[in-house]
Each structure stands twice: as C-alpha cells, then as structure tokens.
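Amino Acid Chain and Its Fold in Token Form
===========================================
Purpose: to set a sequence beside its fold so the mapping can be learned.
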Amino acid sequence: SHAAVETMEDALRVSEAPVIFSHSSARALTDVGRNVPDDILKKMAANGGVVMVTFVPGFVSREVYDAYVAREPAIAKRLESITDAAERKRVRKEMEAAQPLPKATLAQVADHIDHVRRIAGADHVGIGSDFDGMGEGPVGLEDVSKYPDLFAELIRRGWTDADLRK
C-alpha cells in the first residue's frame, strides 16, 4: 500500500517472501493510485502474497473519490491564507460539512473482496479495514462490530466457510 505500480512490480520481482498490500483495494473497480491493478494482483498471487482490502470510502467508491477530488481545490485555496492550526481545522470541517461526500457501502467493499478473489484467488485476499487511518467508514462498516455483516454479505455471494476462514 502507498506504492506506485512500478514499486509494486519491483517489490514482487525481487522479493523472496510473500508481498502484502496491507490496506488496498482493486483498481479495476475504483481507479485510484492506492488500489492494486489486476496484473499486479496476478503477480502477487504467484508470489504467495495477500491484498488486505481496505474500507476507505474513496478507495472502494469511485463516486466518493470523484467528489473528494472535486471539492479539495476550493478547500486548499481557502486554507492557504490561514496559519493558525485550530482555525484551519475549523474552516476545513465547515467546508466539508457544506459539501458532504457520498457514502461508500459494505456492498462496495464486498465487491472489491470478490474481485481480488476472482483475479488472485481466495488464498490471496484479506481484510485491511484501515479503521485507524480513515475518518468515517462505509455505510454498514462503521466499526469492527460490523465484521459479521461483511461476512454475511460474502456468504450471500457464495463464499464458503473454508474460504472465509482464510
């Protein structure tokens, strides 16, 4: 995670140990830099690694990402002239409240988990929520108490108990 595609390729090419993407999702579903492209997913599977699918709304929902990118320039421009940290925080919070982002969903996270499994296999997909690094989680995955709901969704999608244990 936090690596360019070229770095992902380099790590997979030289690593003698399995490579882990600790909190990334599938770029085929949400084309953002943090997410892992399909060709890398295939190489990662051959390496024995794992992609830990994140719940970060902007990485699992293109709509959230696009709305974030659209509102950030105005926020950045407004903050340019503010030097006080508390005031910057207050203004950012106010501007974000005036332009709320759409909501990502548990189903979108499950879509990413399904996609990684389809491309790399069940042995190479995990959960890397990133609760400690994001603000608000997707609807239905607001905190760790919602993991059973995610597993229930995966069961509805045909995941076996053996695959879920992995």
